[in-house]
Amino acid sequence: MTLKGKNVLITGARGGIGRALVEEFARCGANIFPNLRKPDKDFDDFIKELQGKYDVNVESVYFDITDTENMKKELKRTFFESKKPIDVLINNAGIAHGGFFQMTPVSKIKEVFEVNLFAQMEITQFVLKLMARQKSGNIINMGSILGLDIKEGSCAYGISKSALMAWTKTLASEVGVNGIRVNAIAPGLVDTKMGTLMDEKVQEDIINSCALKRLAKPEEIAKIAVFLASDNASFINGQIIRVDGGIK
């Protein structure tokens, strides 16, 4: 699959899945605009290596996704003012949280929703202005199987991802007429720092319920995102793609 010359904006690019997304899209020839909250030397070294290896442009965009004004300012500067298109937006940023409802303050639930849903909506709403003008675009939201198979202790994270995936379907039905496709990926437990922060017993239960008896690799999730962004998925819209190794 080639995405040569396509411009891809990826939020939450510094994490495990985020870095895998950056590398996989670079490998397919796309120009990457990874979003980080602030400069990071390790990440800068990583993207310099990718630029040399794949001969693509990688330009970091710095803003906290919950800071609306700065987000708009940086996206205006990077895309609108320079008249660069945004061909693909990947809403990958997110925070994890586990806890039973009675033990979780509503303020914490609001915080999780702010990052995992409302900030993604706000960025998407802004980017859609450009995509609608282009009459083309591709939006990929990073959901979770915990938003599909709700379990105890998921009153914040799981429900926020469930809402994100429901919004995916609604948005897809609204913007398809403008040549814009919207889909979501629902990974199982992934071998990343965030994934392994989960309670060991819960991790063990998830792995035991998986037919492949292992965690997903970040690059396995990234490859699905590349497929959804490519012309090979040109008639896939409004779908939630489970990537869970066969959860029983």
What does this structure look like?
This protein has 248 residues and is an alpha/beta fold. It has 8 helices and 7 strands; from the N terminus they run βαβαβαβαβαβαααβ. It has a 7-stranded parallel β-sheet with strand order 3-2-1-4-5-6-7, sandwiched between helices. Helix 2 (41-54) links the parallel strand 2 and strand 3 (61-62). Helix 1 runs parallel beside helix 2 (41-54). The relative contact order is 0.15. The model has no long low-confidence stretch (mean pLDDT 92).
Walk me through the topology.
Elements: E1 7-10, H1 16-27, E2 31-36, H2 41-54, E3 61-62, H3 68-80, E4 88-91, H4 106-134, E5 137-142, H5 157-175, E6 180-187, H6 193-196, H7 200-209, H8 218-229, E7 240-243
Parallel strand pairs: 1-2, 1-4, 2-3, 4-5, 5-6, 6-7
